[in-house]
Write a structure and sequence with these properties.
It is a single chain. This protein has helices spanning 3-8, 24-35, 54-60, 68-72, 84-92, 103-126, 141-148, 188-206, 215-225, 230-237, and strands spanning 46-51, 75-82, 130-134, 154-163. It folds into 2 domains: 3-170 and 226-237, NADH Oxidase, CATH 3.40.109; 172-212. The protein contains 10 helices and 4 strands; from the N terminus they run ααβααβααβαβααα. Helix content is 45%, strand content 12%. It has a 4-stranded antiparallel beta sheet, with helices on both faces. It is α+β, with helices and mostly antiparallel strands. Helix 2 runs antiparallel to helix 6. The model has no long low-confidence stretch (mean pLDDT 94). Keywords: Flavoprotein, FMN, NADP, Oxidoreductase. Residues 7-163 form the Nitroreductase domain. Its EC number is 1.5.1.39.
């Protein structure tokens, strides 16, 4: 299967094959891909912590009820918005005035982190491995900072588990999010209504005895249940939204 079709067939893996580990060569290729990822203005405003130690994986897997996939994966990658390198440059050349706590700096660093994360996922997919992004990483900031020794102006943004797939899953249908030439706000409701047909059918297929959620209800239900460490992230970054 070529790379594009592998991407189209990708689904989130929440239980990995613990009997078969990724090879050293696969690991090397993933790390090389991450280090080759683009970075805005060459600032290198993101970092990744690659966790392979089984004791640490087990510890992270116990943080809350949604982190079980971390226990069985081969590697767990925590991508950081990381301005510590930029701050070293700022403190070295003090004649240049620069606000490193603005919303722009946070946006740049978060963007870099997601670019690295997507690059890592694409590399893993190309190697035939399974992946699962963990947005709930942002609910684990305090725990991750302590366990992984994260310091300075750096915050966890997204996590990614990688490993060999234990059981094949089903690809969840996706909504059309592409506009040609101009954004079309008036199209959104019809896109959602059309998407609900395939999404509800998907849920009915994988769990016929459970409620088949619509996009709108599933989205707001999950969003309302998240308890992101927003205040802690703002404090670490000393975020100044007005600048």
């Amino acid at each position: 299967m070529d790379f594009i079709n592998k991407l189209k067939q990708r689904y989130s893996v929440r239980e990995y094959d613990t009997e078969n580990s990724i090879t050293d060569e696969q690991y090397k290729q993933i790390i090389e891909a991450i280090n080759s990822a683009p970075t805005s203005s060459n600032w290198h405003a993101s970092s990744v912590i690659v966790v392979r130690d089984k004791k640490i994986l087990a510890q992270l897997g116990e943080v809350n009820k949604y982190t079980g996939a971390i226990k069985s994966c081969d590697i767990f990658l925590v991508f950081l918005a990381d301005y510590n390198r930029v701050n070293i440059a700022k403190n070295t050349y003090t004649e240049y005035q620069y606000n490193n706590h603005s919303s722009e700096t946070y946006t740049v660093a978060v963007g870099d982190a997601f670019i690295q994360a997507t690059t890592a996922q694409d590399a893993a997919i190309s190697l035939g491995l399974g992946t699962c992004f963990l947005g709930l990483t942002r609910t684990m900031v305090k725990d991750l900072n302590e366990i992984l020794n994260i310091k300075g102006q750096a915050v966890p943004i997204i996590g990614l588990t990688i490993g060999n797939i234990k059981n094949n899953g089903l690809v969840k249908p996706k909504m059309n999010r592409v506009f040609e030439n101009k954004y079309d706000f008036d199209r959104l409701n019809s896109d959602i209504n059309e998407y609900d047909k395939s999404l509800i059918a998907h849920f009915q297929k994988i769990n016929p005895d459970k409620k088949a959620w619509s996009y709108k209800e599933a989205t707001i239900k999950s969003a309302s249940s998240y308890r992101m460490d927003t205040k802690l992230i703002e404090e670490i970054w000393e975020l100044e939204l007005s600048n």
